[in-house]
Amino acid sequence: MWQRQGCGGERSRAGAQELHPGGMSQTEPSSNQQDSEALQQERMKAVPRRSSIIKDHTVQKAGSGRKKTVSFSSMSSEKKVSSVADCLAFMQGGCELKKVRPNSRIYCRFYTLDPDSTCLCWEPSKKNSERARLQISKIHEVRTGKTTDTFRHHGPAEQLPEEAAFSIIHGDGYQSLDLVALSPDVANIWVTGLCYLVTQPEHAHGGGPEDSLGSKIRYDWLAAEFGKSDEDGNGIVSEDTAVATICRLCPGTKEAKVRLKFKEMQRSKEKLTSHVTLEEFQEAYCELCTRPEVYFLLVQLSQDRECLHAQDLQLFLETEQGVAHTTAEGCLAIVKQFEPSALGREQGILSLDGLARYLQSPECHLFDPEHQHVCQNMSLPLPHYYISASYHYLSEDHLHRGDSLEGLMKALQVGCRCLELSVRDGPENEPVLWLGHGSGLQNSDKTPTPPTTACSALEFVNKYAFLTSPYPLLILLSHQCSSAQQQVLAEHLQRVFGTRLYIPAVPSAIGKVGFAAVLPSPEELKGRVLLVGKKLPEEEEGSEGEVSEEEEDILGGAPPDDRQMSFPEEEEMGVALRNLSLQRPRHFHLRKELSDLVALRHSGIAYFCNHRAKQKRSTTPSSVLVSPNATTPQNTTYWTLCSLGKVQANRMASEIPKDLVAFTQTALIRVPPSLPHEDSSNLSLQEFWMLGCQLVALNRQSPGAMLDLDRARFTQNGGCGFVLCPTIFREDVSNFTANSQGFVPGMPAQTLRVKVISAQNLPKPQGSDTKNNVINPYVVLEMHGVPADYAEQHTHTAGQDSPLFDETFEFQVNMPELAILRFVVLDDSCTSDDFIGQYSVVFECIQPGYRTVPLLGREGDVLPCTSLFIHVTITNRRGGGKAHAKSLSVLRGSHQDREYVTLRNVGIKLLDDSFCAAKESLTEAIELRVNVQSATVSLKEQCGLPPVANMKQCIQILASRLQGPEGFPAASLVLRDGYPYLDTPGNVPEGVHRLLTTYEAVISAHKQLVENADGLQDQISEVVKKGMELHKDLAKLGQKEGMRGYRQCKAVENFTWNIIILKGQCDLLQRAKMVALDSLQQITLAAEACGLKVTLDSFCMSSQHSSYSSQYLLGNAQENGCV
């Protein structure tokens, strides 16, 4: 019985079995359902017929404030759509769709596919039955999403879910029929069925989709696998064998689910035996192992609608996955690697199962494989890197078992490059490790846990120090040893580490002018161990001396957060500054032998405040007026590691953020978590990373979100333990503050869209107390970064262990270099949200397109065969990553754009005159980029493509519109002066003419940008160079203008703003030129792939008339065999 649900009333039809989007037939509704439906039907009878015309105000726009919802669907999800035949059967039964009109009205109509699959019909309608239909032969294309003018430019349509929207382009004028289904599943079924009928019209007149090449490949492969198990050749196998075979062919499929399916088959057929036939085996596999979302994607991508040829795969990789420079040979290699059937491999065809395996492989993971190895510049000074740091690495269980060394090993294996070793006096003149509060614990048999000697710990560290990463290891040595045991400890260090131990060439010169102004780079320190600890004053000449120890050092590097900090006002600086007030520090004796081994002096908050006070007593604001890398008497922060408490760091971030960032450019800052005796929780990593703090130490024994974010951050650079800090932290001139709530100057915002499509093989939560195997998962998406970027959204709650979500989320990312995207899958239980899995990835490592997210457990362990399937698009993305990711930005609001590029008045005539000279060039550069963006977006809109589409997809649409009577493109692409223009013989329809005119505007805008970018960039760069030359004299220039206090600080702020803006626009212009050249190359390659003839005009053939850009384009075209 067919049942229609929605705003248009109820309708039933007999004689047909209802196939739901999940693919399962539905039985008679329950009495409660019938009562509810009858009540709704009675209500609808009282509504006039014209009420089918509605303005839908009930649909709320998706956003960050969405509430979590639970789907109580009565339809079974055990059987899924596994073929076009399922889609056509559903369409012939019909369902209700919302029809969107250009007049902002939304109509509810019941749509069906006629029994011959030749016509699309709908009712109710004021049209007669002949007019309320659309011939399949009149359909040109079927578009998913809201890509037509009706969807884009009419208010109510904006509130409709994009995942459920699709458009049918038909007729000579390419009119659009814009529809919205009740769910994304239903929309996918209609799109899949219509695409199949449009491209395979012969199947609408008798030929069945079950006869397609894809179906043949799949069933032949299953028959071959079945035959391997059917040793007797009787055509049957045991149930155990069939279950094992299916689980082997589709890893992750639960054995219980397969057995249940075979039991259902036995009951329905009233079989007395449990043996399985080939037909039953094939049916069970197709129902249990077909992923509907992959099948819908396959049908939309392929020419033969149920399998991918090499050229289809190549187009998919280039247009959707953002893989640049793919080749036919590379695509055939993918087919050979992932296609399970021998027939598919022989013919170079990727079947449904091959595509599913490929999408599940590491090649299609969300994480960019380029970052699996060290990929960043490792030759910069050490303070320019975030460093993976461990604070407390032992659980209570470790302490009871006495295996403290195992904790050290695990910390080193995950890439930690900074360990803390606390050493105390031990028996028999042998120093021992002090494991914090909890030392002296007893084993389960009440016997004391023997202490770990410092010597054995050092030998263990030396053994595992460089197995995971070759880059330097920092050991923070916190000791309270007697003079004699300090001597023993120094001997152990020298003997164990030997030449690995890095000792500065002139240890006594640390902090002196003339000594190395910056720390060495990780590359220079490869394979070396650096000790961090207390050092004797440089004037100390005896065998030992007295050093002070701040309280944070006594407590193992964690300052007490409740200590009172006071910073007296300095009115002349225009800011509230206070001097630190601490109790008198404790003093102790330090052996010179141990002091000389220390490479980095360990200090606390007092050192930072003293250093800052010296800077403020100078004549210029050091954080901006003097380069932090300059060697001056006031700038002696190098060769120092400063430990700050959480509260201290936060207060500095709110009161003196620029000073804190300037300090981190030459010195290392470490922020440890809470004291061990308080708890084992971890700090908010992003909170301190965005302050410039390089080492945020973690309790490695405490799993959770922070450990997951730390794993994501340091996998960004091959897991080597070092990751470059954002560029804005490394520049000599910077005005970044962590409290910024808007855009970052010189850095355009990025827009990340993530569509969570489905999940696969989700396990039950470990802490679940339910006895059945049913779970109700939902996915939480968290964006971590600067305050303006932080956001959290989540899907609805779905049923089963492999649910479909089909929900899209959008995030604005103002500082991509700090952003981390985190996925968390939870089980929506009655009492709590039970954890199922998690995965975090740095924004810079995200790959666009259809991607698999492998889920991890609480401890970071991989959950076998458990993943999410998503689709990612990124607009306005800066350089890096895949070529697709460098797409031109989407046009944004003009007000913010104007504010973003406005130069400010410094108040110093020499500088203002210099900056004024750049205004005209700056305006022209912006106009060039905006013109290209505007023309490109207009072309994509007319092609019916989303803003994230690339030029290859536009050329595909253009070629299809320019087809001649015999199906071949009736146009050619001519390279004039190296730029691809389209020549069309004779007249073309008005719609195609508009499209060609827009295309000409795109080429013209690209040409202007490519040919003028270098000159404008040189002009702007010259102004930046002159400004930086005057930078060192900024204080003197301000004094000549009579600047004091607030005016002087404001001048510095405006100067910094201008330099950042000019540098940022130079970078944007250069990237825009490279993207433009890439887009022009895409056009040439795509034209050749679509059958357009590519030629050179006679003028272009002469190299003397070719510019550099023309030669670049021609060279690439000839290299790829296009001309």
UniProtKB/TrEMBL annotation:
EC main group: hydrolase
Localization annotation: Cytoplasm
Sorted UniProt keywords: Cytoplasm, Hydrolase, Lipid degradation, Lipid metabolism, Transducer
EC number(s) given by UniProt: 3.1.4.11
Encoding gene, per UniProt annotation: PLCL1
Protein origin, superkingdom: Eukaryota
Gene Ontology terms: cellular component: cytoplasm
Reaction equation(s) it catalyzes: a 1,2-diacyl-sn-glycero-3-phospho-(1D-myo-inositol-4,5-bisphosphate) + H2O = 1D-myo-inositol 1,4,5-trisphosphate + a 1,2-diacyl-sn-glycerol + H(+)
GO MF annotation: an example: phosphatidylinositol-4,5-bisphosphate phospholipase C activity
Protein name in the entry: Phosphoinositide phospholipase C
PANTHER family for the chain: INACTIVE PHOSPHOLIPASE C-LIKE PROTEIN 1, PHOSPHOINOSITIDE-SPECIFIC PHOSPHOLIPASE C FAMILY PROTEIN
SMART domains named in the record: C2, PH, PLCXc, PLCYc
Acidic residues bias spans: 538-554
Record field: compositional bias (Polar residues): 24-39
Annotated PI-PLC Y-box domain residues: 634-730
Lineage, highest ranks first: Eukaryota, Metazoa, Chordata, Craniata, Vertebrata
Main location: cytoplasm
GO biological process: one example: release of sequestered calcium ion into cytosol
Sequence ranges assigned to domain C2 in this UniProt record: 733-857
Region (Disordered): 1-49, 536-565
